[in-house]
Specification:
By secondary structure, the protein is mainly beta. It has a domain of 264 residues: Ribonuclease Inhibitor (Leucine-rich repeat, LRR (right-handed beta-alpha superhelix), Alpha-Beta Horseshoe), CATH 3.80.10. Helices cover 7% and strands 20% of the residues. The two termini are 66 Å apart. Keywords: Cell membrane, Glycoprotein, Leucine-rich repeat, Membrane, Receptor, Repeat, Signal, Transmembrane, Transmembrane helix.
Length: 905
């Protein structure tokens, strides 16, 4: 009996303690409010003087004696943390705080909310690992943690929630593999783990989720292998999104069993093989995106059955063959993107009659036909991109029927004829790109009807007449490119709208003065008047504070260079090939972002501009063919050009010694591995820079300057003394030209370290001594000119030296051996050893220089290319060489956009 009484007493104490632990619901809510930073007073109604059931976001139920059953605080811009006192809302079945800025860990105390059915914490910044205690929420049906900062491995304990219908763990930082146990839910309909940092394989057990309707596994994950064939068991599946996650292999044909599927997204992977015929069995399919893969073959005929297809994206693959005619007959098709493949043939005529089509992009293929003459029922067409093909004929007049068109690109084709006047009917057009064709005639006045036009590109055509000054009425114009046409005359009185950002009229026949009215275009960033016949530079150009690129090359500009005062954004200034006189304006030191200065081929009279060291980003300096004079400095002069990659002082009147200090701090020319990240070009991501420089003895206009192109050209001056040994430290150097000077002494053996050197010209000097055998280690060397010096001894043999002709050594009376006809005597007949060992004492290098690292070359394939380039050079086919190595003209690029991390679904 005493024991029974004791047990009853303990039970009473436990019940009392438990009861006292529960605080009133309104106090639990006020406690939650105290941890929240409510900057917008969204919770102002939460106060103790009113009934908590009337508070914002709070819902009470009559059936539970006015207990709180739902708390929805979504989208209120709340900060702070989530209070563990919410666990006292014992009757709560819906807790939603989505789309705020709440942080901190998820309170494990929420596990006591046994009635909870719906927990949505998405779009916040919660962190930490998933609380294992939440596995006790056996009635939970929806768990949404999308777009937070959760870490650790994907939680395994969620499989202990048997009633889950909706699980979203995407947009976090979960790691590890998808657990095989995720295949054991009985009722789940929605599963998303995309946008994490998962790896491993996609488990075949996913195929056990026979109630699943939506599956999201992609974006930022990096799986091994491909899609498991068991996915064909998911008969209820309506949406698959496994994009951008490193999938390989072929698309499993079992996907063809999913008769309810309406969305298939597998883009941005490495899927290979042909398009599966079985995909054509998916009669319910509405959206299919297989773009950015490595799929091959043709579009299968089974795709003709996809009558409900609205979006078909197959761009950036390796598909070929003709675009089948049935594609034009898919009645529901709204978006068709097949660009960047190898399609041939013609454009299906049915596409021009499809009244539902909104986007048609067939660019960057090999289509050789005319533009659709059938375009007549295209009132809904918004984007038409047929660029980079082999289209012929004229632009059809009925393009004017496409009243919804806002983007029309047919650039880089073989189109002829005039610009149709009917384009003026396209009032919604904001981008018109007809560049790089053979379009002729004047720009029609009717183009003023395109009142929303912001982008107009007509470059590289046969456009004639005067520049259409009436374009000023197109007040939204931001981009205008009329370069490389046949436009002539003087500049019209009125210029362009004030919103212009990019303007190019280069390579035409315009003359007169550059109008000062351009200085009123406050937003302009890129201004190109090059290759015309303009005479004067407006002084006000130096006050255009937003200007980034100013190109006035190859005109007939006279007078002095204006002062540049408001030039804080100027990155490229090109005034080469004019008749400019006087000194360089010292005001250029105001242009702290300058990377390219090109003043070659003028009449500038000045000493070397030492003050340019104040431009820390300077990469290209070309002063060639002017009247510069004096010495460039002495051993005490302080030089600092850490980013300089190309310097051309040739064809001037410089004299004196070559100061070692100048070359000592050319850091950008020393770092051999600085371009390991891949081929890059100088520019700002929107406009690639160009420059005219002497490469291997030929003046070449390099339209896109590779960042690995490093050149020093001091030729045709009066420099004297020895060549500084420190030049051997410039390991990235591609070209070195000291020819036609008065240099004396020996060729530094340190040049044997310049393993990236492709051309070396030391001709027409007074150099003496032997040719260093170490130069045979220059395996990239394609051009060598040591002629007209006083060199003696045996010409080294082996590697690239076996390819050089007699012209490389002519007029050196003391040289002998191959390839010269003069043989060496008995004393000289013994070939020196071909070892390239260089003693540490041979040159003044800093400690830590690693010879073995520098000897890393381009490899056999590159050497074969250099050898072929050398033969072509000897055949005087330098233009072909320039185009092959440095590419064709097309220096404008468009910005790309990236989705925010974790917000893809």
């Amino acid at each position: 009996m005493q024991l029974l009484l004791l047990l009853l007493l303990l039970l009473h104490l436990q019940i009392h303690t438990t009861h006292s632990a529960h605080i009133p619901e309104y106090k639990a809510l006020l406690s939650a409010k105290s941890l929240i930073d409510d900057t917008q007073s969204a919770l102002s109604s939460w106060n103790a003087t009113t009934n908590h059931c009337t508070w914002r976001g709070v819902t009470c139920s009559d059936t539970t004696h006015h207990h709180v059953t739902s708390l929805d605080l979504s989208g209120l811009n709340l900060c702070g943390t989530l209070s563990p006192d919410l666990a006292h809302l014992r009757f709560l079945w819906d807790l939603t705080v989505a789309s705020n800025q709440l942080s901190g860990p998820i309170p494990p105390q929420l596990s006591s909310l046994s009635a909870l059915r719906y927990l949505n914490l998405s779009n916040n910044i919660f962190n930490g690992t998933f609380p294992t205690q939440l596995a006790s929420l056996k009635n939970l049906q929806v768990l949404d943690l999308y777009n937070n900062n959760m870490t650790g491995e994907l939680p395994l304990t969620v499989v202990e929630m048997p009633n889950l219908r909706h699980l979203h763990l995407g947009g976090n930082y979960f790691t590890g593999q998808i657990p095989t146990q995720y295949g054991q839910w009985q009722f789940i309909e929605y599963l998303a783990v995309s946008g994490n940092e998962l790896n491993g394989t996609i488990p075949a057990e996913i195929g056990n989720l026979t109630t699943l309707r939506e599956l999201y596994l992609g974006y930022f994950n990096a799986y091994e292998g491909g899609i498991p064939a068991e996915i064909g068991n998911l008969s209820e599946l309506v949406r698959i999104d496994v994009a951008n996650c490193g999938l390989t292999g072929e698309i499993p044909p079992e996907i063809g069993k999913l008769q309810k599927l309406h969305t298939l997204f597998l883009q941005v992977n490495a899927l290979s093989g042909s398009l599966m015929v079985e995909l054509g069995n998916l009669a319910s399919l509405k959206s299919m995106d297989l773009s950015n893969n490595m799929l091959t073959g043709e579009i299968p005929s089974s795709f003709a059955q996809l009558k409900n297809m609205t979006l078909l994206n197959l761009f950036r693959n390796k598909l070929h063959g003709a675009i089948p005619d049935f594609i034009g007959d898919l009645p529901a098709l709204e978006v068709l993107q097949l660009w960047d493949n190898n399609f041939t043939g013609s454009i299906p005529q049915g596409l021009g009659k499809n009244g539902r089509l909104k986007t048609l992009d067939l660019s960057s293929n090999n289509i050789a036909s005319t533009i659709l003459s059938s375009i007549s029922k295209c009132q809904n067409l918004e984007v038409l991109n047929l660029s980079n093909n082999s289209l012929t004929g004229e632009i059809p007049e009925n393009i004017g029927n496409c009243s919804s068109l806002f983007r029309f690109r047919v650039n880089d084709n073989k189109l002829t004829g005039p610009i149709p006047r009917e384009i003026g009917n396209l009032e919604n057009l904001d981008a018109l790109d007809l560049g790089s064709n053979q379009i002729s005639g004047n720009v029609p006045a009717e183009i003023l009807g395109c009142r929303n036009l912001a982008y107009l590109d007509l470059h590289s055509n046969l456009i004639t007449g005067n520049f259409p000054g009436k374009l000023r009425r197109l007040v939204l114009l931001q981009f205008v490119d009329f370069s490389d046409n046949l436009i002539e005359g003087t500049w019209p009185l009125h210029v362009l709208p004030r919103h212009i950002v990019f303007f190019s009229i280069s390579r035409n026949n315009l003359s007169g003065e550059i109008p000062s009215l351009f200085c009123n275009l406050n937003l302009i960033n890129y201004l190109d008047f090059s290759h015309n016949h303009f005479r004067m530079i407006p002084v006000c150009l130096g006050n255009m504070s937003n200007l980034i690129n100013l190109d006035l090359r190859n005109n007939n500009l006279h007078g002095t260079i204006p002062k540049f005062v408001k030039c804080s954004n100027l990155r490229s200034l090109k005034l080469a090939s004019n008749q400019l006189e006087g000194p360089l304006p010292r005001s250029l030191v105001n242009c702290k972002k300058l990377e390219i200065l090109e003043f070659a081929n003028n009449k500038i009279n000045d000493t070397f501009p030492h003050w340019l060291v104040n431009l820390p980003k300077l990469q290209v300096l070309s002063l060639r063919s002017n009247n510069f004079h004096g010495s460039i400095g002495n051993h005490k002069t302080k030089f600092s050009f850490p980013n300089l990659r190309i310097i051309d002082l040739s064809h001037n009147m410089f004299h004196g010694h070559l100061p070692s200090n100048f070359f000592k701090y050319l850091t950008a020319m020393m770092n051999v591995n600085m371009d390991k990240g891949g081929l890059q070009y100088m520019g700002d991501g929107y406009y690639y820079d160009s420059v005219t420089i002497c490469i291997k003895g030929n003046d070449i206009n390099v339209e896109k300057i590779q960042t690995l192109l490093t050149i020093i050209d001091f030729s045709n001056n009066s420099f004297k003394g020895e060549i500084p040994k420190v030049i051997g430290k410039l390991g990235s150097l591609k070209g070195l030209n000291f020819s036609h000077n008065n240099l004396m002494g020996h060729i530094p053996i340190s040049f044997g370290i310049l393993t990236n050197l492709e051309w070396l010209d030391l001709s027409s000097n007074k150099l003496t001594g032997n040719i260093p055998v170490q130069l045979t280690d220059l395996t990239s060397l394609a051009i060598l000119n040591l002629s007209k010096n006083h060199l003696v001894g045996l010409i080294p043999q082996g590697k690239q030296f076996n390819t050089f002709t007699n012209a490389s050594y002519s007029e050196n009376l003391g040289l002998c051996g191959f390839p010269m006809t003069k043989t060496c005597g008995n004393d000289e007949g013994q070939h020196p050893p071909l070892s390239s060992t260089i003693q540490e004492d041979d040159f003044e290098f800093a400690n830590g220089f690693n010879w073995k690292v520098v000897l890393l070359g381009y490899g056999c394939g590159f050497m074969f290319g250099l050898s072929m380039g050398y033969l072509v050079f000897l055949s005087e086919k330098s233009k072909w060489l320039a185009n092959s190595v440095y590419g064709k003209r097309h220096n404008k690029v468009r910005r790309s956009k990236k989705n925010a991390r974790g917000r893809i679904i």
